[in-house]
């Protein structure tokens, strides 16, 4: 580090340190609120009692996600300051982001303070201390915020990601593919509701896209020594930029299915299936959700009944994305007839089926089973199609029960573990979609003139663009951080936090992208209209927002609260 | 009034009075912020200088809209208390609405307080006084809020509108039409992007739907003695419930065109055109927006050049909704070649054209002119189609210049006046859409079971439903109030305020409606998915949110600030 960069780091440190001090006070308010809730519950955080605090717990979970975002973007600014001659933009981006987040956080506390016994003095001490006031005065200043937007436009970006070289290489090769191959097809796939074509799938197979989370020894690209979630994240971001459903989401299913087999399968299952999944032959689908259960996986009724040489599957699944084109499905089924076992009666199967482009299909087995599927028409997220499936005595051989006989009843835990990767991957999808909206908005704002000047020169537009830029940076940094945690075998809660944050950020970013485009943003001929409808799925799938906030995050925060 | 109802009113008065006292303090903070901005500008609120305060002014305009909403719903609760034995639900609905609005308002002030020199003490005095704390403690209580949701579900509604009998009759007759005729067609029109069929148009003609804002003596249903905006509002609400674009929006164009001709036309023009418009023969369209001008009407370049016996029109218009099916267009054109005249060089024309169902058309005149149109594909708001139009030497006779020779150059003012009614009507459209989403959500939440009980029993769902209910009630009351103001010839700013509030409320209501539906909400087979994409147009058209907030509302607030 040279002297100059040290002095730049010195100059940056005060603001970042101030921000950290304020965030620590906010974290303390959160901790105190959690303690109050736990105390009101007499320490009993089992389902029914917890439900009496849903409104409060939702806010607490979102606060946790926002604090995580703030910490992540501050780390980023500090790393930039340590390594660069000039990191003024990164500093402003991070501090404006934290300032904006503080206003929102305060509103959440103002909403729940009576229910969680927070004193006005404590809130004021966190948000209106002289330190906080000085920080907020500086970074809520509309001119400072607008300047972040102006710099973001000038740089065409939201700071540098500073990935390791191998990740930069992966990112740039998928970025090129995204721009050259996917982007030109994306609008047509969306508007005509087509299935992802082989033009996209074939090169992605060659590029190893389906084996990102599978170790090299099983034909994937993850190191044998451990996992590499970051590669999965950067590829997802680059592909989702061009199309959420026809590119970025192709990774979700091999991610989940690969994890389930890798962590839960027998050696034979790993050796048989992981190389195939990594090669994208067959493509895979996930059939977990039931029509009457939604995010309530433990309530499912889909049955697997033992029969000679295997199992017969009976029941319905829904929102099974890519179930037509896929050749194998990961199916969660109740293997114990004892319903009172709840989620302890569930097991996971690898189910083979023919691949089809059709939106409706019926397959008959020689064993007598039938599998019927029908795609659900959706407002966005088009390209893979999400199916409702009906299994009627569909036979699967014994070898398809993941983990074999002794893994019976462990399907739910394995699913949850595999889904954590899916949540991180979904956050990366949200991030890629936001980036597309951000870049398209900059392009339009520079070009479009209204009331005598370019849209990009108006303070309100600049402030919106600044907000997009720092949301993106926060999402980037959070996904990178969670990827690292998950490589270390932890980070399950953080995967939910980044999903909560990124999906909402993608909704508001695409909303503003449409707004800045005005009428053109509402036209199907402009890509932001697609980003808008695509973004709406994010808070619904891969763990609905409410389920993640209440059943995963708040529950865990309360469990560890003192 | 009986003793019992008097005692109920007495019991209600304290909370409502407290809410009013707190709102008055918020209004004072707003006034003080406006004064600070005006002082910083040295009193000069002309365009360029004002633009330096866009971020702040946007918040101030939205605050004004939210205060207006709060006052309106409190008036409602008070009227209910005065007239009814039990108005507990209405009281809670109104007070919870105000409490929720206060949290949001405080966040807006926290965001702008440094830029507008607000003291923390003043903010605390407004929002954390003992009175405010008592009120907020009561009405932010999640159980109280959830109970509002529970009551809304039990009543299947959001309070009673208490309209005069003639309006109730109109509302119920259009409600029946909406349910019986429009609702069964709405999904198909949306998904197949059809044009509103005669099945809907013909009976609406008979019901007088196109003459709601036209006086009886010209064939409409407004009283000769004055205007009747309330009828227009209630009909719009009922029709928009079934379909925004295939029903509720049919009223927007005759509303605007009728107003322009009634207020600006010559006697001959009124007598010739108003009866036709009222009869819905021909249907009308509005061609004001230009591709390069958007909400910046004064910057338009579309030309009308004098020629023998009339004018030749040249240029492009865009987002001209219903321009295919309509037989007359209201066209704003530059009649003076002197561009420096800005909006003072514009005039309004009634332009006849053939009606067509086609999404693309070219019409040739015997005089040699050509009019070409192409529908813009949109993500929602389908049924009328919004066209881009190209006029090439399109001839209009002299008699089609609204107001005749002497009205040349007055087109902009007349357009703005006519558009105020369009804004109120748009707020009513937003309201109808919200109501549809609200009712569908209640239906679904009662039926859908998750984690062992109906969705409608969860606190977080109930809180969301409560929020929908009070947003709807606030919109209803605001539209009624603005209708009355406009009958009295005032209310132009209030029309913008209700549009700002209602369009955002419709966005968030439909967002939550989709969320509560989970995956089903994202399916095109469920109506809430349509409500969601339809709602997104509201903040864009009939005056984009930013334009209304900054150029109409904030400007006027600053003009009158002391």
Helicity of chain A, as a percent range: 55-70%
Shape of chain A: globular
By oligomeric state, this entry counts as: homodimer
Strand content of chain A: 5-15%
Show the largest interface: A-B, 79 and 79 residues
Sheet of most strands of chain A: 5 strands, antiparallel
Q: Give the structural class of chain A.
A: alpha+beta
State the order of secondary-structure elements of chain A, H for helix, E for strand. HHHHHHHHHHHHEEEEEEEEHEEHHHHH
Mean pLDDT of chain A, to the nearest integer, reads 94
Distance N terminus to C terminus of chain A? Answer: 42 Å
Give the C-alpha Rg of chain A. Answer: 24 Å
Polypeptide structure, described:
The structure is a homodimer of 562-residue chains. With 562 residues, the first copy, chain A, is α+β, with helices and mostly antiparallel strands. Helix content of chain A is 58%, strand content 11%. The first copy, chain A, contains 18 helices and 10 strands. Chain A has helices spanning 3-40, 47-50, 54-83, 88-112, 120-127, 130-139, 142-155, 165-191, 198-206, 229-242, 252-264, 267-279, 411-447, 459-487, 492-517, 519-522, 527-535, 545-560; strands at 284-287, 303-307, 310-321, 328-334, 346-352, 360-364, 370-376, 386-397, 449-450, 453-454. In chain A, strands 2-3-8-7-6 form a 5-stranded antiparallel beta sheet, with no helix packed on it. Chain A has a 3-stranded mixed beta sheet with strand order 1-4-5. A two-stranded antiparallel sheet of chain A has the order 9-10. In chain A, strand 6 (360-364) and strand 7 form a beta hairpin. In chain A, helix 11 (252-264) packs antiparallel against helix 13 (411-447) and helix 15 (492-517) crosses helix 18. Mean pLDDT of chain A is 94; it is low at 1-9. Chains A and B meet through helix 3, helix 4, helix 5, helix 6 and helix 7 of A and helix 3, helix 4, helix 5, helix 6 and helix 7 of B.
């Amino acid at each position: 580090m040279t002297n100059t960069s040290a002095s730049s780091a010195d100059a940056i440190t005060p603001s970042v340190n101030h921000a950290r001090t304020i965030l620590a006070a906010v974290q303390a308010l959160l901790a105190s609120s959690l303690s109050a809730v736990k105390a009101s519950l007499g320490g009993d955080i089992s389902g029914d009692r917890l439900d009496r605090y849903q409104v409060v717990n939702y806010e607490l979970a979102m606060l946790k996600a926002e604090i995580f975002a703030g910490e992540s973007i501050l780390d980023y600014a500090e790393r930039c300051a340590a390594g660069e001659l000039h990191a003024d933009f990164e500093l402003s981006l991070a501090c404006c982001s934290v300032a904006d987040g503080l206003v929102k956080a305060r509103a959440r506390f103002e909403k729940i303070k009576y229910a969680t016994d927070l004193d006005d003095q404590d809130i004021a001490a966190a948000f209106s201390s002289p330190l906080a006031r000085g920080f907020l005065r500086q970074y809520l200043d509309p001119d400072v915020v607008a300047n972040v937007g102006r710099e973001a436009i000038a740089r065409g970006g939201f700071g540098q990601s500073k990935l390791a070289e191998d990740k930069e290489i992966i990112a740039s090769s998928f970025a090129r593919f995204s721009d050259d191959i996917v982007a030109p097809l994306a609008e047509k796939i969306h508007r005509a509701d087509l299935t992802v074509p082989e033009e996209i799938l074939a090169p992605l197979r060659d590029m190893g896209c389906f084996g990102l989370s599978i170790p090299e020894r099983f034909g994937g690209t993850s190191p044998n020594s451990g996992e590499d979630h970051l590669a999965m994240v950067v590829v997802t971001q680059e592909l989702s930029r061009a199309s959420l459903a026809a590119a970025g989401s192709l990774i979700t299913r091999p991610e989940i299915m690969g994890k389930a087999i890798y962590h839960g399968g027998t050696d034979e299952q790993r050796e048989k299936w992981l190389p195939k999944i990594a090669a994208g032959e067959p493509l895979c689908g996930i059939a977990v959700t039931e029509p009457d259960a939604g995010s309530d996986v433990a309530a499912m009724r889909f049955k697997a009944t033992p029969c000679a040489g295997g199992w017969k599957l009976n029941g319905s699944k829904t929102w099974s994305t890519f179930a037509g084109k896929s050749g194998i499905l990961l199916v969660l089924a109740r293997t114990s007839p004892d319903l009172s076992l709840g989620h302890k009666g569930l097991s996971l199967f690898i189910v083979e089926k023919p691949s089809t482009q059709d939106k409706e299909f019926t397959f008959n087995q020689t064993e007598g089973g039938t599998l019927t599927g029908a795609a659900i028409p959706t407002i966005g997220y088009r390209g893979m199609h999400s199916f409702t499936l009906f299994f009627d005595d569909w036979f699967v051989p014994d070898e398809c029960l993941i983990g074999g006989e002794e893994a019976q009843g462990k399907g739910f835990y394995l699913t949850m573990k595999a889904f954590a990767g899916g949540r991180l991957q979904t956050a990366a999808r949200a991030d890629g979609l936001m980036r597309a909206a951000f870049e398209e908005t900059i392009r339009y704002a520079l070009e479009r003139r209204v009331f005598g000047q370019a849209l990009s020169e108006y303070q309100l537009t600049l402030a919106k663009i600044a907000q997009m830029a720092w949301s993106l940076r926060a999402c980037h940094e959070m996904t990178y951080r969670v990827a690292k945690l998950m490589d270390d075998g932890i980070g399950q809660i953080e995967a939910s936090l980044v999903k909560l944050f990124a999906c909402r950020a993608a909704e508001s970013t695409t909303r503003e992208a449409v707004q800045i485009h005005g009428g053109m943003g509402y036209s199907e001929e402009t890509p932001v209209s697609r980003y808008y409808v695509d973004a709406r799925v994010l808070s619904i799938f891969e763990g609905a927002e409410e389920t993640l906030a209440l059943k995963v995050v708040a529950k865990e925060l309360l469990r560890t609260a003192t």
